[in-house]
Amino acid sequence: MPSEGRCWETLQALRSSDKGRLCYHRDWLLRGEDVLEECRSVPKLSSYSGWVVDHVLPHMQENQLSSETSESSRSTSDLEQPSCVPKSPVGTPAFSPVSSATPDGAEDKHESQHAEPMALQSSRGIKVEGCIRMYELVHRMRGREGLRQWQEEQERKVRALSEMASEQLKRFDERKELKHHKEFQDLREVMEKSSREALGHQEKLKAEHRHRAKILNLKLREAEQQRLKQVEQERLRKEEGQVRLRGLYGLQEEVLHLNQQLDASEQHKDVLKVDLSAFRTRGNQLCGLVSGIIRATSENGFPTAEDQAVAERALQEMRDLLTSLQQEIARACEDKRRQDLEAQVKRRDSHMQQGPEVHRETPAPSQGPGGKQNEDLQVKVQDSTMRWYHQLQDVSSQCVLAFEELTNSKDSQAKKVKMDLQKAATIPVSQISTIAGSKLKEIFDKIHNLLSGKPVQSGGRSVSVTLNPQGLDFVQYKLAEKFVKQGEEEVASHHEAAFPIAVVASGIWELHPRVGDLILAHLHRKCPYSVPFYPPFKEGMALEDYQRTLGYQVKDSKVEQQDNFLKRMSGMIRLYAAIIQLRWPYGGRQQIHPHGLNHGWRWLAQILNMEPLSDVTATLLFDFLEVCGNALMKQYQVQFWKMILLIKEDYFPRIEAITSSGQMGSFIRLKQFLEKCLQRKEIPVPKGFLTSSFWRS
């Protein structure tokens, strides 16, 4: 054992020396030239060292244990025996430092060269080699232990650093949270400060608002008082205006009554042989003056004191005129009586001179020089036209009486039937348009089926005139009324709408003549100028009723404006002018038009034989000729152009004479239209006229 300790010390000393750090090979003499090559290579253990660690060291440890219990001599003898040293299964290549990359042939040669020296080594060499191997193993174990300790130390340091970093992170989070809390506190303080400032500002604004509200309330009270004062003034003004207006109506009524007395004095013209036309002309002028004042008043609001004064002067002049007329008639009567008395005396004297048997015939009075009399235009319509007008109104009245029971019925079922029938009759007429001919035919068929007693769909229900015995009369009346109302409203606003409405009305008129008579009755009632007819003022008639007979709409004692009145009249005349020239294209062509162009010619001739009305006559003539002029031109040709020349040469001066400067628009429009037609020698086709292509759509 002491020798073994010395060996370890020797090995330790050699390892610590400079030469101990060199690579030694015990077999360098056998290898020859390979020694220098190995010196240049990196020092490394041979593969045999692993075998020594696995086989020799365990035996050496056993020997050490046995040496402690046995004698050292036995240990020495054991070591000297080569049989105790295990042989390496690898053989001599374990002593070779040559790398595994050496070819197989070289390895075999190397083994053959070292096999014999390995077998000849002594037990001491083997022991030294084992000690070297053991020392290397111990050194490695120490290295591993040191490495393990170093790793543990590093792990402890890492854990310490990690804990330190964690603590620092916690401190950082705490500082950050503290900073956020401080910022939040600062922000809250700022917000509270802003809130306090805002509340103070709000209180200030509230105080200002209350102050301004007080001022505004004072102003509002003042404004309300001013408004009430103005309302009261306006009420007083309206009351005064109403009083003046009623006074004007009374003045107009009295003027018209006095004018009728002037007209009644016309019977003395032939008897007394005096010319009373000047009185009559002046009376008409005064009536026109008063009517003009009332018409202007209706457009502008209420009459002024000046208007009332002018009307009163006109009334006074009318009274003076009537007084003068009566005085003139009285003088004429006195002169005639005196002349008759003188003539009677002369005849008596002559009879006394010639004897009672002598009889002479008095010659007939002769006409004035030239034999031509100046005849004025008529004011009244022809008797035949008036009879026709009254017949149509009688038809309308009889129709109303026929369904009076249905109208006044309190039964809910009857009311429902009446409402359904009215919708079925009026809604299709409202849907008439120029969208397509097929659509127009559907509407016509629906109306025709309803009048024929067939059920039609209206409002999701089946409706038929057979639901009530008076249903047909009711539907015919409402249908005719709706056609005229469409002319009054739709055609008045859109002139092109006259033609689709007129063609449907004409087709229904042809198949159901009573509907046509009711259409004319409604048209004549709402627009008497379509007859043509100027309704006279009857004694005892209220002025509002008289204005209604003229076609004006009167609501709350206020007459509609002249422009609106002319617009409605224009729409109805346009509808009438379209009806007389259009026929339903799907009807029988062998039948004649139920109310054709001959009635248009009659209307035009009669309107020209009557005294023109300011603004009205020019407007209606223009509308009628623009819609129906082309058809009349094709029908009557030369006679039509003669009529146009008559209008231009004779009728225009009459219209111009009664038209004021503010109402010349309609007259100028008519004049320019006829002059352009005369230049072109053609009346243009009216805009919106239904062509053949429309019926194919």
Automatic annotation (TrEMBL):
The keyword Flavoprotein does not apply. Residues 63-122, 340-374 are annotated as: Disordered. InterPro entries: GLE1, GLE1-like_sf. Residues 340-362 have a biased composition (Basic and acidic residues). Its main location: cytoplasm. The keyword Isomerase does not apply. Keywords: Coiled coil, Cytoplasm, mRNA transport, Nuclear pore complex, Nucleus, Protein transport, Translocation, Transport. It is found in: Cytoplasm; Nucleus, Nuclear pore complex. Gene3D superfamilies: GLE1-like. Residues 66-76 have a biased composition (Low complexity). GO terms for cellular component: cytoplasm; nuclear pore cytoplasmic filaments. Residues 206-241 form a coiled coil. GO terms for biological process: poly(A)+ mRNA export from nucleus; protein transport. GO terms for molecular function: inositol hexakisphosphate binding; phospholipid binding; translation initiation factor binding. Belongs to the GLE1 family. PANTHER family: GLE-1-RELATED, MRNA EXPORT FACTOR GLE1. Required for the export of mRNAs containing poly(A) tails from the nucleus into the cytoplasm. May be involved in the terminal step of the mRNA transport through the nuclear pore complex (NPC). This is mRNA export factor GLE1. The gene is GLE1.
